[in-house]
Amino acid sequence: MYLKSAYDIREKYLRKDMLPTIFCPGCGIGSALQYTLRAIDDLGLNQDEIVWVSGIGCSSRVPGFVNFDGLHTTHGRALAFATGMKLANPNLKIIAFMGDGDAAAIGGNHFIHAIRRNLDVTVILINNFTYGMTGGQVAPTALKGLKGTTAPYGQFENPFDIADLAVSAGANYVARWSVFNYLQGINSIKKALQKEGFTLVEFLSPCPVSFGRRNRMKTAPELLRWYQKITVPLAKAKKMKPEELEGKIVIGEFADRDRPGLVREYEAYKKRAKKMMGWEE
Amino acid sequence: MRYPFPVGRSDFIQGDEAIARAAILAGCRFYAGYPITPASEIFEAMALYMPLVDGVSIQMEDELASMAAIIGASWAGAKAMTATSGPGFSLMQENLGYAVMTETPVVVVDVQRGGPSTGQPTLAAQGDIMQAIWGTHGDHSLIVLSPSTVQEAFDLTIRAFNLAEKYRTPVVLLTDAEIAHMRERVYIPRPEEIELIERKLPRNEEEARLPFGDPHGDGVPPMPIFGRGYRTYVTGLTHDEYGHPKTVDAEVHERLIRRIIGKIENNKADIITYDSYELDDAEIAIISTGIVSRSAIRAVKILRERGVKAGLLKLNTIWPFDFDMIEELAERVRKIYVPEMNLGQLYHLVREGANGKAEVELIAKIGGEVHTPMEIVERVVG
Predict the structure, then answer these.
(1) Which CATH number fits the domain that encloses residue A130?
(2) Model's pTM, two decimal places?
């Protein structure tokens, strides 16, 4: 793949008057954003037909920095807003930029139901195991033992595997990478953007300032090295025993299927309604 | 345009059904809801009608999602509505505030039932007046309408959409279980008999760049619909005229919030409607809203027969509130009675309006039954 310069991507897609971003040094959100913009650029998608939607948190500030229509909503509810937008105007292509707390905690119910409906949306999910914006509280994705300001002695609850959850709930496309895996990341986003129905690309993303320094990884390189240690590619994971996978995170493509999306289902439903009422043959 | 119900003639229908039909005629093409008594029939009617008029009706996972979905639909260009009852309305308050802050035209129907909490699901109440006005957090304003008959439920639903579009604001239609489930004769007009107001769209790039500005000087910015190339950023954070977050700038916050409140307050004369009966020479005024007004009208008639110069002020708009009009009325009458189906919510507003110029007495009733006319009469004649 030929990669355009980051400068060109920035010039074309960012709102210059909103810069600089609010992101801390070493944050991975910028990388995930860049991959998303590169995917849009590579696919030659129409900038005016894409709407970015987000909830609350660091990653949710992304729609403000990109030069597209954008809806920065309430905490956890981005996908519920997206449901209204997509059904009211199916021509819009919707990208939801979310954090792990936003998607899996306060927004957990909206998340599973958007997937169940197969809402036509591409979710770019930033997973950093923490609530970065509010100061490093523990997130529902945090692996056991990881520390946060609300779990100062190490997380004692079981974590959500968001990708696993999305596959079970019925998403058409699910992939997970660390921001380290940039080519896979860009390719996955491209795939996700071309599919109908619910598509999800999750990124393990460094948060040295809120998360790392509470877990003995004060810099992004340390976090990236940690990702290398704890991530296991799907093919390899299949050959590993459950006890070997304890504390590891599997990366790769978990689902790639073509169930009809919500928009197509509703169009068919409208036809059925008119037929049943004798309005149409 | 073909309608899935008869137009241009009267029909004998429930309040909930009337609201659904009015919404369709007002141009509503997106409905999101979650079932709740006594509002479910609105949803059921919308579910039946919407696919036939190429609109959308969707059952969301909860009320928070319903409220979110209609805001999203509105930014995508649709007129959108949801309906609920007290407990669900509480869940909507978060995103109702978001709609206020982002100036999104939407209609929210709250069919009141006995509360607090799950209370009396099948019985009427007027306990959500304060929730409708002040339920969301922060300084804000919106519009709250209140029908007292099934016909008014129909008419005020159309008005709710018009006001939402005109002022780019959420409008709450505050009705109750009694009106929702009561059947009455309603005239369903033909579309050409209805006057509809559509939201202002940006006329040029200049206006589109200021989705939260005030280019017309009326406090209502044109709304750049998503997908039309304006690249608008909408946030619930305090934002400047361009939509850029400015969360620690006191001046920006004050300018934004004062304009949002101002566009409602400065247009009270256009927004507020009321009906008065026998008020011209009245010494006793009854002020009521919604279903209780039906008993109050009858009470006025009985009182007049008994030689008491009583009159009724029936409020069709609960917010914004015309405090000045109440004070003026208080100067003319000896006493004001406020019958309502709660322990004193409208009463607070009336007493503030009366400003000590007349004695204000609450006639409270809770438990699910509407005041009988005699209950009001007996309180007045002592």
Answers:
(1) 3.40.50.970
(2) 0.98
